[in-house]
Design goal:
Elements: H1 6-16, H2 31-34, E1 42-47, E2 52-56, E3 62-63, H3 68-80, H4 101-105, H5 116-127, H6 133-145, E4 150-151, H7 153-161, H8 164-176, H9 183-194, E5 196-198, H10 200-206, E6 215-216, E7 221-222, H11 226-239, H12 245-251, E8 256-258, E9 263-268, E10 272-277, H13 288-301
Length: 306
């Protein structure tokens, strides 16, 4: 970190991102997300030594969407370990998060757990263990954030009503044997999982184990083995921002996960987690203002891992 305090850095970031508002658009293919004002902006930093710093709309809940894929993957790995990798890969996709042609060409084996195909495979794995994977993920998120986390059923229903691409993905994988449960049940569970509502403050708390070697200073428990924590961070760095992951790594240089609700969570290993929210997305499905905010934060604090 540089000579500025974290609060001063956040104030500076809020000024630097102003020119980027209006350069993207909300995820209007999910009707419940289309009406969120594009001017929303929140940011939260949680340090491993207990500091918590927020600015803007950091305590307003929003639909975290694909950010939940990290939580579901962590749960699956904690339950069945490396067997997860017999159903999903670890490679960047280089294609949009809901792409079909690469999945078909590669025999229904998803490139990584953060594209939709991979996340559906992880949901299918969790269905082997629990009846309601979305409730499991919601409870896990609430435990890590030290407060209740709810599923927005209206968002879940809106997403399920328009989940034709995800249905196609799940059915293709069912035909190839990657998905073993009813594809409709898998898609429904996945849509409910993505409909979790969290704030930037909650996300920064929930992801803190990835910055602290697997230990959560928030709940004072070990959540992941240190080896698994390193591997999750590696996957975030190489696969967390879909097919713009290289550009994001170049700009920001931190492991991170984005969601089409406009949220991004980044990990500064050994130091902190940073969560940002602004709903207008670029063509890859990543928050325009959020990515710019994290780039400015990394530059002002010199905290890039690269």
């Amino acid at each position: 970190m540089n000579e500025l305090s974290i609060d001063e850095v956040l104030a500076e970031v809020a000024v630097l991102v102003k020119p980027h508002f209006g350069k993207g658009r909300a995820a209007d293919y999910i009707p419940q997300l289309a009406g969120v004002p594009g001017t929303k902006f929140g940011m939260a930093v949680r340090t491993v030594d207990g500091g918590e710093h927020v600015i803007g709309d950091a305590d307003e809940g929003f639909s975290v969407q694909s950010i939940t894929k990290v939580l579901s993957l962590g749960l699956a790995l904690n339950r069945i370990g490396d067997e997860v990798w017999t159903r999903v890969g670890k490679e960047p996709s280089g294609t949009p998060f809901n792409h079909l042609s690469l999945l078909e060409a590669e025999g229904g084996f998803p490139r990584n757990p953060f594209i939709n195909a991979g996340a559906l495979a992880v949901t299918d794995i969790l269905l082997d263990k629990v009846r309601d994977p979305a409730a499991l993920v919601s409870g896990f998120a609430g435990f890590l954030a030290d407060g209740p986390v709810e599923i927005d059923e209206a968002v879940a229903a809106s997403e399920l009503d328009n989940a034709w691409q995800n249905r196609a993905i799940a059915n293709l994988m069912r035909g190839k044997g990657t998905v073993r449960h009813d594809p409709e049940a898998v898609v429904a569970a996945y849509c409910r999982q993505c409909a979790l509502t969290m704030s930037c403050r909650q996300l920064a708390r929930a992801f803190l184990p990835l910055a602290a070697g697997g230990f959560s200073p928030v709940v004072e428990e070990t959540i992941f083995p240190e080896r698994l924590t390193r591997r999750l961070n590696a996957l975030l760095l190489t696969c967390g921002i879909y097919d713009s992951v290289g550009s994001f790594a170049y700009r920001v240089g931190l492991p991170a996960k984005s969601g089409v609700g406009g949220g991004i969570v980044a990990v500064v290993p050994g130091k902190a987690t940073v969560a940002v929210w602004s709903p207008e997305l670029d063509r890859f499905g990543t928050s325009v203002v959020g990515a710019s905010a994290l780039e400015a934060f990394a530059q002002l604090t010199n905290c890039s891992v690269l």
